[in-house]
Fold:
Amino acid sequence: MSEFINTLKPKHGTKFSKKRVGRGIGSGTGKTCGRGHKGQKSRSGGKVQIGFEGGQMPLQRRLPKVGFTSKVNILTQDIRYDRLSVIKEKEVSLELLKKYKLIKSKIKTVRIIGPCTIKDKKIIKDMYCTKSVIEFIGK
Structure:
């Protein structure tokens, strides 16, 4: 039952012998060696670069360029003023927002946006606000 390492063999049909090209008509890969007759791919060094379509404008150049990811947007975030009702403190800062998990830890700048439907007014420290929020806090 116990097999020795020297008796182990791969499963039948998993291993194939190397294709020996140019070894006569009887081998099946003689004369042209499986490359067919004439043409660029039959010749030595006859390779076509990836994406080449025989002179036709390649697909990657026919399609328009698309998309842009701003590096600024990764570090900034907008928050609605109504979401600040979760915070019990009167003064709101960036650290408090991170503590209450309203923003991710990597965020560096925050903009408070409207609408302002909650009653309590907060003191916003070191953050940008929209006009509607500034009017609400000013009243």
Observations:
- Residues 8 and 81 are 71 Å apart (CA to CA).
